[in-house]
Prior knowledge:
Blueprint: E1 10-12, H1 27-51, E2 59-63, H2 68-81, E3 89-96, H3 103-116, E4 121-125, H4 128-131, H5 138-157, E5 161-163, H6 168-181, H7 185-188, E6 194-196, E7 202-204, H8 212-222, E8 226-228, H9 238-253, H10 258-287, E9 288-289, E10 296-299, H11 300-304, H12 308-322, H13 331-342, E11 350-352, E12 356-361, E13 364-369, E14 382-383, E15 388-391, E16 397-404, H14 407-416, E17 421-425, E18 434-437, E19 443-444, E20 453-454, H15 455-461, H16 466-470, E21 473-477, E22 480-485, E23 488-489, E24 501-508
Parallel strand pairs: 1-8, 2-3, 2-5, 3-4, 5-7
Antiparallel strand pairs: 6-7, 9-10, 10-13, 11-12, 12-13, 14-18, 15-16, 16-24, 17-24, 18-21, 19-20, 21-22, 22-23
Helix pairs in contact: 1-8, 2-8, 6-9, 6-10, 10-12, 12-13
Amino acid sequence: MFPGNGKADSICAGPAVTRTNPGYKTQGTMDTSENNARSFVQSVGRFIDQRKLLAPSEHVLAAVSGGADSVAMLAVLLELAQQRGRDYRLSVAHLDHALREDSAADADFVESLAGSLSLACIRERVDVREAALGGESIEEAARRIRYDFLTRAAEQAGATKVAMGHHADDQVETVLYRILRGTHLRGLAGMPARRMLSQDVTLVRPMLCASRGEIVDYLRFRGLAWRDDPSNLDPAYRRNFIRHKLLPLLREEVNPRCDQALLRLASAAGDAEILLAGQAEALLARARRPAGQGAIALDAPALAEADELVRQVALRRAMEQAGLPLQAVGAEQIQRLSDLVAGPGASGPVNLPGGWIARREKALLIVEPSIPLVAEPSWPAVPLACPGRTLLPDGRSVDCQILAFAPADFDLHCRTRPAGVEMIDADRIVGPLRCRPRETGDAFVPLGCGGRQTVSDLLTNLKWPAAARREVLCICDDQGIVYVHPARIDARVRITDSTRRVLRLSLRTPPPPDADEDS
């Protein structure tokens, strides 16, 4: 366990400053503080159990920035891991974003902390400014790179959960920000306690039940050090403006307990969203009809029979699944979609963000990309690590795994067809693999299509809309195209009775942002 010395060293970014803790001097105060610390750990444990965030003996990767929140989370998880029936196995991960001159000192601090606790630490440095894609803000790039790193680090460590140190104060700020920006019911629920990072890795937030004050008191009692990022004080960032200016004003002038009010709102919205989401998914399952790749078709009369609120949630969910930028979809557009469903006489079509359009076609509601769209993406071919993971310029990534051929696994793959995953004969690959967007004149022999044809003709025959065609990628070796993602593999690399080794290709899309600031 962490050593306690009755002091709190706050190692600040920039010149290091050591602050001694003036409290906890008398025996009575010490007893109270110890009881508070014990109660704090127990409350986090209850939150973990209530939300089923961690299973006994599960391997957890703690995302530790070096700040107070993540250091406290690591300490609490270590305490809980010692309790009977928990036995969590812990590793540490730290990503240096290279956004400050002294950011390497944060990484050194985290690595030293992990070493003192005999925990493995996975550390990586990425210059976020250089890695930002065209049109991507620094915050967006940092979030994308951070989640990709944590997913890879968890898989490297053999962890199934990634724990992050977001707490109740972060939740208050997130909900208030979303209210002011404009949000739907799901946005009011704030940050989820858990969400998927990949098929095998789940992100959890075990500290959402704790306040910043409780976290700092716990660190001080345990005598733990942490790093303070001076950018967290800059009011130029919207999150900091809400934290340091708007919330204090609301507490003073409107409601001294506005934090608790916002948390109650988030909890109620979350409960309502779970109920509505279940009804909406069932409605979508009944209403969904066959459609071209990249488009959706829904039975309008089936949707019209549902309560309007459930119908609107179902429509939002359908658009999300189709890939529309939901942050840009307003309540007025959702209402117009609902009206379009309710009666064929409603005005239409409905123009939607991201170059999409919704229209009524007899009994069907069709949501599809409008024509024309922006130009096809273009970037140079990227060599693929094989085995390994490669980040692509558009934010997606490609995982390459070499596996011994197992008929049962291949049969399961053929029956379930997991999105973005293909299995090919590894020994039929010639030379290194590369990935790029499709180009004019690309041709191959699509498996099951009877002969050589261009990629363009294949997509036309499949009736793919323009938006879906823009997302197509080609994975090639020295003999040509191996896989047109996500349409077909080339016939020459198919799995046969003579296959001995399998190359499993998995293309990942970055997770949607939570509209929150990560630890």
